[in-house]
Design a protein that fits this description.
The protein is globular and about 70 Å long. 61% of the residues lie in helices and 4% in strands. The protein has 250 residues and is mostly helical.
Length: 250
């Protein structure tokens, strides 16, 4: 504990906890103890944020599966275009403000980014509003109950996501300052030919191929895609992140 410096504490002490932002250590009496506490708190907060984001991403993959199921069942009824697996990556995504979008981008988990996610998932907001209209359309005897139930699952999950991002927003707000201590410094989008990034992109292509086969009817390929995502793809992204590389997955 004695080896920890005042600089460690000054760097990790959130601005809102400083009596004087220009002199972060004024009024701190137990510096070694406070350093230990802040590091422990930061570790808990980062672990929570990571797990919330991970569980939301996994849930969104379920949504992708449900959307493809909806499209395939509608096509089987002769509604819409012939079914082709929907696996495209959007170039613009909603912000939560009706009619407003922003370009797809890799962004650090700061207040503005969390607010965008929160806005998109807000009940009757961007995505919820779109799926609510789909659900209302399917709530007729013509479609039976199955398609309505699938759309309802997506809407209900969106409410859970909104609650998750609300909790994340409260934590991220604590660290809202230049060089936020909950983020890796120097993290940036990496070139596609960086070896650690190339490994992740190769795994992504494998996942997309398996999902295309799975959504076309071979259910066993969906299981393989899930396994590849949770092992190779996630591991490759984590490995790149530890080196400060963001993976351009879009």
């Amino acid at each position: 504990m004695a080896a920890l410096s005042d600089g460690d504490l000054a760097e990790s002490l959130p601005l809102r906890f400083r009596a004087d932002p220009a002199h972060p250590l004024d009024g701190v009496s137990d510096r070694p103890g406070d350093i230990a506490y802040l590091r422990s708190r930061l570790r808990r907060d980062v672990t929570f944020l990571r797990e919330q984001l991970r569980s939301t991403a996994i849930s969104e993959m379920r949504h992708l599966s449900w959307v493809n199921l909806l499209l395939r069942k509608l096509a089987d009824r002769g509604i819409g275009a012939p079914y082709v697996p929907a696996l495209g990556v959007a170039t613009d995504i909603p912000t939560g403000i009706p009619g407003a979008t922003r370009p797809t981008a890799l962004r650090p988990l700061v207040d503005a980014a969390v607010a965008d996610f929160e806005g998109v998932e807000r009940p009757s907001g961007g995505l919820d509003g779109l799926y609510a209209r789909v659900r209302a359309t399917l709530d007729t005897p013509e479609f039976g109950g199955e398609l309505y139930d699938i759309a309802s699952r997506i809407v209900d999950d969106g409410v859970d996501h909104y609650s998750s991002f609300r909790r994340m927003a409260m934590i991220v707000d604590v660290y809202d300052q230049p060089s936020p201590p909950h983020l890796r410094p120097g993290f940036a989008l990496a070139p596609r030919n960086e070896p650690k990034v190339a490994r992740a992109l190769q795994a992504q292509r494998g996942v997309m191929t398996l999902l295309s086969l799975g959504y076309s009817g071979d259910q066993s390929q969906i299981v393989e895609a899930r396994s590849l995502m949770l092992s190779e793809l996630e591991g490759a992204i984590d490995s790149a992140a530890r080196k400060g590389f963001g993976v351009p997955l879009f």
